[in-house]
Amino acid sequence: NDSTSTIVATDADCDGVVTGLDCNDNDPLVTSQGGTQSCPAQSCNEILSNDSSSQDGPYYIDPSGLGVRQVYCDMTLDGGGWTLVYININPSSLGTNQSGEQGSVSNLANPNGNSAKFSDAYINAIKEYSDSRIGYRVTSNDISSRYFAPSSCTYTHATHSNLNDCRKYTANYSTSTNPSYIQCDYWGGDGGGLDMWYGCYGGGYTNVFNTHRSSNYPQSAGITTNTSGSSLGSSSTSWTNDILMWVR
Length: 248
What we know:
With 248 residues, the protein is mainly beta. It has helices spanning 44-50, 120-128; strands at 57-61, 69-74, 82-88, 102-103, 116-117, 136-139, 147-149, 195-198, 206-210, 222-223, 243-247.
């Protein structure tokens, strides 16, 4: 708007969006820093960080150049910025010990979609562009419980029995950069990925959620609200509730 100015470096395409916030400063029709098919972001968290008014819904991302995908972004719950990366719904359960994509990942553009999973590499690439808050969230469309794992975790969709960061959990969301986690000393079973157990002492224990199951169990994943009893939940709380995993 200044006829005497000869400086265009801060808005080369004169669309009113400065270079630092413009995904393509050579195209006045592109005015965002990511989230569209022609200008994908690294993650939902990046989109929200660039525009705090971003709403829940489908966006496009391309973390680390691994491929443009349309994903569903939760921009409101638990601080927002969550990318949906995994859905497992019975009876179309996903396989175990598979680090690559499973199902049609286009399903991940809707939290009510069918079973699908991004590759482990894609999931962890999204998290690389996150912050130091809680990095993983597990939810279900069937129950209201939500569980969290730290950003330091590296997701692996494979069976393992080591106590690592992926197997810690907290019952409440925290904005802290160093949240406190409760961890069982005895895990039982040999699931991998993200999983959480209650009642680890005194005999009976219950797997409340797991994004991966070993061949020892008929289910490949699930979530319950049960906090005591057998490892597959009580008769009043079905283990077949769907499970969704989000990354930030």
